[in-house]
Amino acid sequence: MTEFWESSFIEKHTMWGFEPADSAILAKDFFIQHKVKDLLIPGIGYGRNAQVFMDHGIDVTGIEISQTAIGLARQHGLDMRIHHGPVADMPFDSKLYDGIFCYGLIHLLNRRERGKFIQDCYNQLKPGGYMIFTAVSKKAPMFGKGIPLDTDYYEVMDGVRTFFYDAGSITQEFTGYGLMEFSDIDEPHKHARNKPPINFLIIKCKKEG
User: Fold this and answer.
1) Neighbours of 23 (CB within 10 A)
2) Model-level pTM?
3) What is the pLDDT of residues 47-70, one digit of tens each?
4) In 10 A of CB 191, how many CB atoms?
5) How far is CA 63 from the centre of its chain?
6) What φ, ψ does residue 103 adopt, rounded to 5°?
7) What is the C-alpha separation between 53 and 59, in angstroms, rounded?
8) Is 115 in a helix, a strand, or coil?
9) What's the rounded Cα separation, in Å, for the pair 147 and 154?
């Protein structure tokens, strides 16, 4: 999986460009409203969704498995702390954060990995802190295609495994972690506007004090 991801990374970064995802912009507004100042971004990639938070005075720390991605983030002037490693190795520090934002990562994990990841994120929130995940939904056009691996979990292409969320699976996986609400968002391909948008779900949780 890591080798596949590394070999295709440059092509992927060209596809996504450096404009932040619409859900990152919405998360920024939410975090500003709730006075989040210190943000952890697991799966920060090459940082396209980091700058929008930093531009509004939010300190960002990242986690990223790909050294290639970290290098690209540095080349584009993103000066922040980035822990190098998989989210499966969380926590990388003992710090508690006001907020956590995770875009397009959790649906790449299997059932056991998702459970651990949600727990690890929740453990790194301060009391009263918020975490926001974006995950691909069963409304996405690739749902049900590829090799079935588990309920709603498919190998959609070689080396890429995807779990597709709906209301039931969100409720099942997040209820014990301060689930507040979830909503649909169609994420456009901002660097390839001829491609149709992909339906994601934005999942918001709060850790009570």
Assistant:
1) 21
2) 0.89
3) 999 999 999 999 999 999 999 999
4) 14
5) 11
6) -105, 125
7) 8
8) helix
9) 5
Residue carrying the six token digits 């079935």: 148
Q: Are 135 and 201 in contact (CB under 8 A)?
A: yes
Q: pLDDT of 97-142, one tens digit each?
A: 999 999 999 999 999 999 999 999 999 999 999 999 999 999 999 9
| 69 token code pair | 């991605």
Q: Which two tokens stand for residue 92?
A: 């990388």
Q: Which position has the token pair 């460009």?
A: 17
Distance CA 173, CA 119 (A): 10
Say how far apart CA 148 and CA 159 lie, in whole Å: 13
β-sheet with 38-42: strand ranges across: 81-84, 59-64, 38-42, 97-103, 125-136, 198-206, 179-187
